Amino acid sequence: MFKFRKPGYTDLMDATLLFGEYFIWHYGKSIRDFFAVWGNLLWFGYHFFSIGLLARTFFTPYRRFHQQYDWRNLKLETLGQDMLLNLFMRMLGMALRLCILAAGLIFESVILAGGIACFAIWLLLPILIPCMALGGIFLLFA
């Protein structure tokens, strides 16, 4: 029913406090939160695509499938077959790892570029919103 106010407190003070707190939040806490979310997305992509593990095991055979050499009963034709099979499995593993690494690196670069663009827009947003509102008003009456 009745609204009690502190002495000397006006609605104009509410607006000035709101704008001040908004700018403190916009250029303070929200930037820290933005970098935390951006870092989480980069961390997710790195671990989802296993970029470190795939880079370390780039030349290992596909699913660790390889032929052991029988050095006691060494026959030239079986040695050639085993070497050819091992070479093929390493090439297959390398090709599959290369595809997954490429997808992971593309994902990471898109997240990196998108984060830079979003951060630049976020910094300019307090200027862009009033300019776009004024531009809309001018277009409305033109």
Describe it for me?
By secondary structure, the protein is an all-alpha fold. It has one domain (26-141). Helices cover 77% and strands 0% of the residues. It has three helices and no strands. It has helices spanning 11-48, 51-56, 76-141. Helix 1 runs antiparallel to helix 3. The longest helix has 66 residues, at 76-141. The chain is elongated, with a radius of gyration of 30 Å. The two termini are 46 Å apart. The model has no long low-confidence stretch (mean pLDDT 85).
Number of helices: 3
What are the segments in which pLDDT stays under 50 over at least 5 consecutive residues?
none
Strand content: under 5%
Query: How many separate structural domains?
Result: 1
Give the radius of gyration.
30 Å
Number of strands: 0
Silhouette:
elongated
Please give the largest β-sheet.
none
* Category from helices, strands and their pairing: mainly alpha
In terms of quaternary structure, what is this? Answer: single chain
Distance between the termini: 46 Å
